[in-house]
Design brief:
alpha/beta; 315 residues; 10-stranded mixed sheet; single chain; 46% helix
């Protein structure tokens, strides 16, 4: 727990779009924090349900809470608007259908400093039950170590922008923002750009975030609908191009794992997209372009190669 003399403001940024079913639970989870020196920025992303009315009631009752609106639609534009409005030393992103644990801010502030980032464990849940817990071991990673983990996370995926604490001063200094052209992996690109500027990344085993998966989620619908899956695939390929450009030649191991995961997905996509000729041709081109490079890369271990073979056989 921080001493009273060292209690920086944390700006909690929550974009919302038609979130009337969950936004109250999300806001209440911020109000319930054991660490109370925060401001809550609720960013309206063109909601047409009762979300705005719900948020305004909270603004009336707590001066630490504000609502703003974004002109450009999309979660990336909303998060950027929140960054522009933030007054805190640190920033945390929360999705409007998710919620925090009571000690989330307290846990993430432990070890946080200039030129660093703290990352907490999280649990996945549906509307009514917990699906799984993704627990990180207590650790301190170098910049290179974390960037590799972004693309080679054996047990816990760490590419989400939520469940983390960022230094606002560093974000402004490096002019980091979410890419509004991307509809997929925009958060991992943001985390990558930020982590390229830090000296260390602190992992905490405490669960700080509850991530809700439900039928309205983009990825859930993409998996159920071939047309939406096609759009999702194109978005993922586009995001990989942006990420690959960002990695450049400075992070070859991370780039190798980016290509490995994309190739693995490519084999799976081929099976799911049978009959969708145009998209299948794009996926075929992706697989052809990556397979030799990935299969001959010595950074890819034997177990991962076996998983890749399994993907080939299932396709």
């Amino acid at each position: 727990m921080l001493d009273n003399k060292d209690r920086p403001i944390v700006s909690v940024i929550v974009p919302y779009h038609n979130s009337e079913d969950f936004i109250s639970e999300c806001i209440e989870s911020v109000l319930a924090q054991t660490y109370q020196n925060w401001e809550l920025i609720l960013v309206d992303d063109h909601s047409v349900d009762s979300s705005n009315e719900i948020c305004k009631r909270y603004v009336t009752n707590d001066r630490r809470i504000m609502t703003i609106a974004t002109e450009k639609p999309g979660v990336s534009a909303a998060r950027n608007a929140g960054i522009d409005r933030a007054n805190g030393q640190y920033i945390m992103f929360v999705d409007s259908d998710d919620c925090l644990e009571p000690k989330s801010l307290e846990s993430l502030l432990d070890g946080m400093s200039r030129h660093s980032m703290t990352v907490g464990s999280y649990r996945k849940m549906t509307k009514s039950k917990v699906i799984e817990e993704s627990i990180l071991g207590e650790d301190c990673l170098s910049r290179d170590g974390f960037i590799t983990a972004l693309f080679n996370s054996r047990k816990v995926y760490v590419g989400y922008c939520w469940g983390k604490l960022f230094d606002l001063g560093l974000i402004e200094e490096k002019q980091i923002r979410f890419n509004t052209e991307l509809a997929y992996n925009e958060d991992r690109l943001f985390v990558l750009q930020y982590s390229m500027a830090v000296d260390r990344v602190i992992y905490h085993e405490n669960v700080v975030y509850n991530y809700r998966q439900h039928d309205n989620s983009v990825m859930y619908n993409a998996a159920k609908n071939v047309e939406k899956l096609s759009v999702s695939i194109r978005n993922e390929i586009l995001s990989a191009d942006y990420i690959r450009e960002e990695l450049g030649t400075s992070y070859p191991e991370a780039a190798a794992w980016l290509d490995y995961n994309l190739l693995k997905k490519g084999y799976i996509w081929k099976k799911k997209l049978k009959g969708r000729k145009k998209v299948c041709n794009e996926v075929d081109a992706l697989v052809i372009g990556l397979r030799k490079k990935v299969w001959t890369d010595k950074r890819i271990d034997l177990l991962s190669r076996l998983k890749l073979i399994k993907s080939v056989l299932s396709a």
